[in-house]
Design a protein that fits this description.
The protein contains 15 helices and no strands. By secondary structure, it is an all-alpha fold. The longest helix is centred in the middle third of the chain and has 32 residues.
Length: 373
Amino acid sequence: MALAPAYVQICFMLLVVITGIVVWISYEAARGTARGDADKGVKKFRNLYLAVYFMAMFSDWLQGPYVYALYESYGISSSDNAMLFVAGFGSSMVFGTIVGSMADKTGRRKAALLYCLIYIVSCLTKHVSTYPVLMIGRVAGGIATSLLFSVFESWLVCEHHARGYKSDSLSETFSFAGLWNSMAAISAGFVAQYAADFAPLSPPANSSFSIHVGGFCGPFDVSIICLLFCGSLIFLLWTENYGEKASVNDDSGVSRSMLEAAQLIAGNPDVLLCGLISALFEASMYVFVFQWTPAVSQEGQPKPPFGHIFSTFMVSCMLGSRVFSLASKYMTPQRIGQGVIAIAMATHLAVPMIDDPQIRFTAFLFFEMSALE
């Protein structure tokens, strides 16, 4: 039995209602906490950052629902599809160790613009159904992801302190950024679904042509438009900032930082264990990112609404973060972590044991809820 779109929609609406209730409970619990209003300068600066941050994250989330589906529609085998994903993850891992230092030296505004440019290149490669071009796109996408998750926050922190704003307002900005990121992820799924359904793939994947438009390429085209808008905002509104002079002029900064990290781990086993737990859980997340599309699909059946599924996943993830905020007031992080790992393990066990895509989809919702950000 195929995963019914109506079932996805019911799950989405139900999760939205539950999330709204939990957010309201969290708000009520936080009322009365002393909290100074930010001045107009801070609010203007926050809005300046959030406008760019939302577009950058929205461009990234748009691509999530249809990466695997697009490769599969081109006739890419499951093993080759896996290699493309590994290339993207590996690229992000390798370049993630150096992009921060590079941005400190060349400027974080320039690095943010570079993110937009590289991700546009990655999206353009999705129109070509040849494996080498798709591989280049995956590597470029990994580099862009590394820039996204390092440069933007670095620019915010540096610019915030340079303008002399209070640290309390910085934490508030991060809180708003988290909320906007969740909204970007949820809305991106619906936009991606509409873009994918807007026009059929042309020419068909089994034709002699290797360049295509429409179909599952649609979300990546919308992402390109958003990236162009994001880059324009950065170019027109952001000022340049750099890292500290000591780190900018020291070419061995990365090596020294890695050595210091190794010494810290060697001297503190708890840090090593925490890192291993985090790495292993992230590994399960990457398995999920790669396998959720085929897991909720069935051969010979219509493709399920991947965009709507993705939005439902994101609501579930948002619910999990809100539940964690409430639970942390009454339980220790260790106890919460044990429960999270138990839920995640059970959901992954359910997938190979059960063939029903609706049950698999439900299991994935609980896994997303356990994947606390």
